[in-house]
Each structure stands twice: as structure tokens, then as C-alpha cells.
Amino acid sequence: MIDLTREDDVFTLAMNAGENRWNTTLVREMAAALDDVEASEGPAALVTTSADQKFFSNGLDLEWVQSTGEHRGGDRKVFGEEFMALMGRLITLPVPTVCAINGHAFGAGFMMALCHDVRIMRKDRGFACANEMQLGMTIPRPELALFRHKIPMNAFYETVQLARRWTGPDALSVGIVQQVASAEDLLSAAVQKASALAPLAANRQVFGNQKEAIYGEHAVINSPYGPAHMLKHSTEFR
Question: Rounded to 5 degrees, what angle do the CA atoms 115, 118, 124 make?
């Protein structure tokens, strides 16, 4: 489900589970990959992308959720808490993170993209969308806090309430992503950006602590807690 490679100071994490729908198995494999990134020392940065050219991540694994009995997706009961905690870990990872959104990013996939420091999206194809409303689902409070903190207010309401599908150029125009690129240039642009940012992680404690100060408890958003705290303690906000 996950391929993690390193070249110089840049780790590249490629999800290779087809549409990369989220279940407990994918959460745990992603967590193990982040363990390897955090175990490194010195300058480093992480690029996240997908091996699939159509989907970055197509959200929650609904087939797994609706199935009964044993399933390759793993334990259903722990998914919500473990997924939210993983997102809280990613948003505060003590190295720079760059997301190369090379296909559709829906629901949980869009949420994961937003947990990165920098997002670069394919400009000619693909949508980013919080599609919970279309599925008849409410967005959990920790996820709403993340969207509110990462998406400028003029686009926030359209994203979470109206389920707007953002193209790369439109997402760039409102500040959801920082850059767009062609399919051919997307990964190299992300790696180039990550390489430039990697020296910031030479002191992991300083880089990580500042992220915690920005996104942790008492962050400057209209909520009692910052999104990282809410994600890591999602059971408190049901």
C-alpha cells in the first residue's frame, strides 16, 4: 500500500493501493512509513503522492465500511480514532511536507493533502473535494477545524457546506494549493520544493515545536483548540 524511498534529503511516499481509499490497514502502513521518516536525522523533507494517475485518494473505503466479517481493510472499530490521530501527526510532523496531488483528492484524501505544509496540484486534471455532504455525512469537528485553518474563509464555506469540487487552477486562485504543474512535472516540482525546504528540519525539535505552536492547543482559529489537538484527541469532540 505504501512505497517509501529516499534520495538525498527527500523522502518520497507513494500510495499504491489503487484509488487509495482509507481503511485501518492503510492508516497503519502510513504510520509505519512516518516512523521511518521521523527516525532519520538531520535535514529532511517528505513528499507524498500516489502511484495512480487518476486518484490521489478517493476518500473513505466505503466497501470496507459496509462489509461484514474479516476484511483486508482491518479493524473497523478503531479506524476513526486512528485516522484522526494520523492526520494530527502528519500536520505536526517535524520535517517539511509537500503533497503532490496528482489525481482526485476526495474526502479523507483531501483532508490528508491539507495536513501537508505545501500542496502542489495537477493543473490539467483532477478535483479536490470534501464530498461528505454528497454522501449524506456530516464532517467531524476535528476535520472541520483542519479545513477552517488551512482553507481561506472565502473558500471554506463552499468547500465544506456546498461540496465544491476544486480544479488545480481554481484551488490555486483561492489559496488551497500553493502551486500547480502538469502531470509530467508535478513530482519533480514537489521534490524540488521539498529539497529546498529540507534544511529547515536540521533541528527537528525547533521545527516541530513551531508547528505545534501554530496548529496545537489555543491556535488562532474560532475553536477552543487548534486542529492538531482536535485530531489527536478526536474522541473528545464527537
Answer: 105
pLDDT lower than 50: segments of the chain: 222
Q: What is the CATH number of domain 2-237?
A: 3.90.226.10
Distance CA 217, CA 112 (A): 20
Q: H helices within 43-184, ranges in order? A: 62-66, 79-91, 108-114, 141-150, 153-160, 168-174
Instruction: Kindly report the backbone phi and psi dihedral angles of residue 55, in degrees, each rounded to the nearest multiple of 5, phi listed first.
Output: -120, 125
Q: Encode pLDDT of 30-58 as tens digits.
A: 999 999 999 999 999 999 999 999 999 99
pLDDT number for residue 222:
47
Q: What is the pLDDT of residue 141?
A: 87
The helix/strand/coil state of 2 is: strand
| Alpha carbon distance 218, 226 (integer Å) | 6
Looking at residue 149, its pLDDT comes to 87
Q: Are 27 and 76 in contact (CB under 8 A)?
A: no
Cα angle 222, 226, 232; round to 5: 140
Cell of 14: 507513494
Contacts of 46 (CB under 8 A, 6+ apart): 10, 11, 12, 13, 37, 93, 95, 96, 97, 98, 194
pTM more than 0.85: yes
